DNA sequence: ATTCCTCGGATTGTTGACAATCATACGACT
DNA sequence: AGTCGTATGATTGTCAACAATCCGAGGAAT
């Protein structure tokens, strides 16, 4: 059995660094608005500035970093309108993923994986671990998209889920949204799983859309996915970034 | 009146080169499978290999280039399954964009812009200019997404439209799909515009989905968006790349 | 004839140094 | 006192050289 022994080195340095940077942004180690000093980061990664810059350019094209010439690279600021934008995009991507899963996907395997994610959510809730809860929540959606088998949906979703987590950490201090809606969230996820298991595509899509709508409501009350296109919150007021 | 005079330089070299590379890939100047020699390209852009490599890393993260360590960067090969993947993703993105346009978008302005694109299509058809026809077709969809005002949908669509054009140029020699379906295509676009003008969201979405489905049918007959998840065409058979 | 090994050219990966630009603090002038 | 101009330190942008790896040609051995 010499299966899956092909990956020898085969990952570029830029790719490795880019992944670590994504993690740092996602977890809040690099809060929105932070400038990424090249010298310092390069020293931390133990590489020179060249590979580091290449990695950062990847994140620029993903929209996670914003580039100002001769000034530096900064973690993007999430303005209120972005919350809507992110969830609208996610809604589109996850809908497409769900469709693909329902038509020809291995529904049994999918529901098993998703069940595990929801179980982890409940577990995290019992232990009052909001970080683990968020992680499990996002894993649910990540697995759903992974199950679609679409390279492009997966790539788009990766960035969107990072931004989602950025929103959550940016807003979790503002609103005390802790134990409040978790039962509801778990229930919504379970309903989606049930619909997948039963093969009811319309129900899956409906539940998924409602779930995304609820998520936006929880994060930015009054800002509906179904409201006017770009809900005109006063722009230029970035969400809280660093501590 | 000192409006919109802010953009002085403010675009990184990597950004400029990346844009040109995207164009080259889109137009087929860099066909699928082509290796991008750094020395040669750097000389052509009149820069050193540093900025060029940074630009190429952007395209890697967009999925337009594939990186093989110590071997080089290559334009991605489009396999049959990718045609389906691309159109499924486009369908999701454009659907979301259409929703946003229908809810709070300036429908009058949008329809005007889209009308212009369709007019360009008809014009190109009369003059037997398939390249211009494709360009106008893609412009239609690009404008629709632009009108949604969503940064993220626009970013995702940009890559998808490039890949769409890659598919078209890869297959246009194979199938003689020239004058055959253009009337149908123009008609479909016009129907979408009409539905937008009338404010009939359901009709817009239905027509859009049908339009994407037809597009796949025209490109890869037998491969439906609605068929089994990843239609199992024999993998490892890339679409024709270079001449 | 085929296989294996070795060597040389060519390309990629990485680095440190240099040039250009920006931000800030300080001082001069109105 | 306030504003402008200047100098200095720090950071980014760019480059050319060096190291590591890969690919193909050629030859030797079986």
From TrEMBL, chains A, B:
Cross-referenced CDD domains: WHTH_GntR
Database matches in PANTHER family: TRANSCRIPTIONAL REGULATOR, GNTR FAMILY (PTHR43537), UXU OPERON TRANSCRIPTIONAL REGULATOR (PTHR43537:SF5)
InterPro entries (alphabetical): GntR_C, TF_FadR/GntR_C, Tscrpt_reg_HTH_GntR, WH-like_DNA-bd_sf, WH_DNA-bd_sf
Domain HTH gntR-type: 11-78
Entry keyword Phosphoprotein: no
Protein's recorded name: DNA-binding GntR family transcriptional regulator
One GO MF term attached to the UniProt entry: DNA-binding transcription factor activity
One Pfam entry name: FCD
Source species of the chain: Prauserella shujinwangii
Domain of life, per lineage: Bacteria
UniProt keywords, alphabetically: DNA-binding, Transcription, Transcription regulation
């Amino acid at each position: 059995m010499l299966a899956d022994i092909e990956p020898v080195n085969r990952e570029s340095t830029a790719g490795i660094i880019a992944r670590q940077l994504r993690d740092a942004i996602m977890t809040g180690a690099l809060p929105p608005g932070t400038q990424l000093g090249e010298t310092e980061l390069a020293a931390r990664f133990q590489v020179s500035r060249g590979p580091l810059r290449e990695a950062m350019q990847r994140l620029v094209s993903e929209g996670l970093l914003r580039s100002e010439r001769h000034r530096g690279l900064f973690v993007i600021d999430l303005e209120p309108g972005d919350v809507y934008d992110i969830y609208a995009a996610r809604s589109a991507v996850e809908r497409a993923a769900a469709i693909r899963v329902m038509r020809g996907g291995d529904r049994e395997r999918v529901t098993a994986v998703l069940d595990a994610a929801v179980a982890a959510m409940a577990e995290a809730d019992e232990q009052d671990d909001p970080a683990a809860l968020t992680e499990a929540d996002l894993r649910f959606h990540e697995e759903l998209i992974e199950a679609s088998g679409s390279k492009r949906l997966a790539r788009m979703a990766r960035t969107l889920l990072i931004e989602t987590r950025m929103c959550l950490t940016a807003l979790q201090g503002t609103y005390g949204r802790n134990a409040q809606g978790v039962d509801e969230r778990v229930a919504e996820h379970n309903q989606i799983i049930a619909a997948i298991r039963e093969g009811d595509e319309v129900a899956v899509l409906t539940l998924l859309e409602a779930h995304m709508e609820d998520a936006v409501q929880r994060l930015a009350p009054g800002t509906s996915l179904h409201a006017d296109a770009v809900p005109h919150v006063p722009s230029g007021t970035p969400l809280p970034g660093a501590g």
